[in-house]
Amino acid sequence: MYFPEYRPRRLRRTENLRRMIRETKLSVDDFIYPLFVVPGAGLKEPITSMPGQYHFSIDRLVEEVAAARDLGLPAVLLFGLPETKDEPGSSGYSADGIVQRAVKALKSSVKDIIVITDVCLCEYTSHGHCGVIKDGQVDNDSTLELLARQALSHVEAGADMVAPSDMMDGRVAEIRDVLDDQGFNHIPIMSYAAKFASSFYGPFREAAQSTPAFGDRRSYQMDPANVREALRETALDIEEGADIVMVKPALPFLDVIAKVRERFDYPLAAYNVSGEYAMIKAAAEKGWLDEKRAVLETLTGIKRAGADLIITYFAPEAARWLQE
After folding, report:
1. How many CA atoms lie within 13 A of 146 on its CB side?
2. E strand residue ranges, the chain
3. Is the pLDDT assigned to residue 213 strictly greater than 80?
4. Catalytic residue among 85, 248, 259, 303
5. Residue 50 belongs to a domain with what CATH number?
6. Tens digit of pLDDT for each residue in 164-185?
7. Structural domain of 180
8. pLDDT for the residue 214
9. Does any domain span residue 36?
10. What is the full DSSP assignment across 159-177?
11. Are strands 31-38 and 75-80 parallel, antiparallel or unpaired?
């Protein structure tokens, strides 16, 4: 029987050999931990569709972020659920908004962790859409000023980075201009550059209470069938001043992550979204798969596709597992 001189299995025989030639290595430095902050005190309320995730009041959020910092996680990403909602989403850009108060509390209490804020109106509008409604449609241009006001209010509260997720055309440039004009030219923008209209956002919409009251978001989020458009969107955001670009979701769009990585020499994030998280959690609860192995394999796949940063609800668990 003929065997080639090169036998790949030679270097798979032991764990130490596998470690030595491993091409893609996960690190705690890769992860950003998304969190939901709500009004009140002493609250850590389970999110039904996302087992292991919670709505935190600001005091409990401070505890959770401190614990994340102690695990070595470099950054958190905040989403806020306001006390009240209205047509223009005004609580989203109020200096006394839930995210603004949370940022101030975190920056005064927890050192050495990056606080990133989601910039979008959907959690704050009474209709649940990501922008201003005119004639039954989301009006792109009149939304830009409000998004920039929201970003500025987050930065004035102490946010280290802002992450616009709304998918309005031109919003990165508008935010960059306003931040620069107000003396915040050192604050980076992580843009949701290629955000697809995905069914995998379902659990998040329960968590953020942001399901649209009418219609859907397909007129501004991307068609899942399009990859060349994703490259155009990414190029536009870079031209407008984005410092980090993102593909969302991650798993159904690994090919998009790979193509963005190949085309652009910019830091690239991928969002391992709520539906991806919930699927693994549900299967693990039924004993259908090994949660630890499935999570680390998933995150490795996202990084192997080309992501430099991974936004994932699994961040604390993954950090612990990587330290074992």
Report:
1. 24
2. 31-38, 44-46, 54-57, 75-80, 114-119, 132-134, 137-139, 161-164, 190-195, 244-248, 268-272, 309-312
3. no
4. 248
5. 3.20.20.70
6. 999 999 999 999 999 999 999 9
7. 24-323
8. 64
9. yes
10. -SEEEE-S--TTHHHHHHH
11. parallel
Average pLDDT over residues 73-87: 94
Domain membership flag for residue 63: yes
- Give the DSSP per-residue string, 114-165: EEEEEE-STTTBTT--SSEEETTEEEHHHHHHHHHHHHHHHHHHT-SEEEE-
Strand partners, 36: 55, 79
Picking from 252, 247, 302, the residue whose alpha carbon sits closest to that of residue 269 is: 247
Catalytic member of 195, 259, 281, 303: 195
Integer Cα distance of 233 and 169 in angstroms: 9
Structure tokens given for 275 = 């539906």
- CB hemisphere CA count around 61 (13 angstroms): 29
The answer to whether 239 touches 191, Cβ cutoff 8 Å, is no
Among 111, 122, 110, 117, residue whose Cα is nearest residue 37: 117
Residue 287 has pLDDT above 90, yes or no: yes
Respond yes or no: is residue 195 known to be catalytic. yes
Conformational region of residue 158, where left means phi above 0, alpha means psi within -120 to 50, and beta covers everything else: left
10 Å CB burial of residue 91 (0-12, 13-18, 19+) is: buried
Is residue 10 included in any domain, yes or no?
no
The length of the chain in residues reads 324
Which amino acid type is present at position 137?
Q
Task: Specify whether 248 is catalytic.
Answer: yes
